[in-house]
Specification:
The chain starts with a helix and ends with a helix. It has three helices and five strands; from the N terminus they run αβαββββα. It is of the alpha+beta class. The radius of gyration is 19 Å and the shape is flat.
Length: 146
């Protein structure tokens, strides 16, 4: 147990720091924009296959979670100056359900063609979850020693 805690605690701490860094970076230098989806790698046939519970067409991928799929989309959006941009973004959608045709993305103000669908809220929630696991692990380490 101690070996696991010794390995897991620093890894969780690094992950926590990265999540906080990513959220701060998004708040500081990136801006949200409404994006329209032009293309997606999640086809209607795959969506129907997932909806009925088969999941044979798309198969299982390491990035997919329980009842969710990580998809890649081509989105069009306008920056704060009104210039149009196109980007490839990845986001999670509910497996079997039709993804929304428009959603919010975050783009880099220094390079508006660089965009992500994972905003600061995603990174802060992930950081909070990692902090909770880290506190639980430290508590377990204290109890094992004591």
């Amino acid at each position: 147990m101690r070996d696991f805690i010794t390995f897991a605690a620093p890894a969780l701490m690094l992950g926590l720091l990265y999540c906080v860094y990513r959220a701060v970076t998004l708040f500081a230098a990136w801006r949200p924009a409404a994006a329209v989806v032009w293309a997606t790698d999640y086809t209607d046939a795959e969506r129907r296959d997932d909806f009925w519970g088969f999941g044979k067409l798309r198969g299982w991928r390491l990035t997919d979670g329980d009842n969710q799929r990580l998809i890649e989309e081509t989105v069009h959006y306008q920056d704060e100056h009104g210039d149009r941009h196109v980007a490839e973004v990845k986001r999670y959608v509910r497996a079997g359900w039709r993804p929304a045709g428009a959603h919010t993305i975050w783009y880099d103000t220094a390079n508006p063609d660089n965009a992500t669908a994972f905003g600061p809220g995603y990174w802060l929630l992930t950081a909070f979850a990692m902090a909770a696991v880290l506190v639980t692990l430290i508590d377990a380490a204290i109890r094992v020693r004591g």
